[in-house]
Amino acid sequence: MGQNRRSYRQNAYEEDRRAYRGGNRGGYIHGNTARKFDIQEQWEQAPERKLHPEIRKNREKARHMSAGYVMFLAAALCAAAFILVNYIQLQSDLTTLTKTVADMESELNGLKLSNDEEYNRIISGIDLEEIKRVAIGELGMGYAEEGQIVEYENQEGDYMRRVTGSGK
């Protein structure tokens, strides 16, 4: 029942629409065969619609652009192109700098690794007992005694330089 009401309303709407538009132009084809329509003939026979003069004036204005508007559009296009080119150039520079930083970080890590390896090689090659033997036996050095140790307080914190007055 509800379906019939809906169909009735739809048909009534279509009839009102056709009446408003000036008749049945497209039409529903009844039957099992399609008719051939001569569109060119229908177009030529259709009455020409008269436009309101104000609508015609507005359409004419819309078709023609003033020189000021064209200049504005050209300036806007140039500004957009300039901004776009600069943006792409900045993106390219950023990519290049990122690659450069990555390469430098890789080189830094390699240098740190080789530096640590060299330091460990040097440290492992030092024999502290041999140094102690040469210092005490051959060079005549000895351990510091009680009165030889002088303690200083460093106010600056970096390093301290001691200058003796003996001139040795």
Strand tally is 0
Q: Which range best describes the helical content: under 10%, 10-25%, 25-40%, 40-55%, 55-70% or over 70%?
A: 55-70%
Give the amount of beta strand, in percent. Answer: under 5%
Shape: rod-shaped
Strand-and-helix sequence, N→C?
A: HHHHH
Classification by helices and strands: mainly alpha
Keywords:
168 residues, mainly alpha
Brief sketch in words of this structure:
With 168 residues, this protein is mostly helical.
Characterization of this structure:
By secondary structure, this protein is mostly helical. The protein has 5 helices and no strands.
Please write out the topology.
Elements lengths: L1 H20 L17 H7 L7 H11 L3 H59 L2 H11 L30
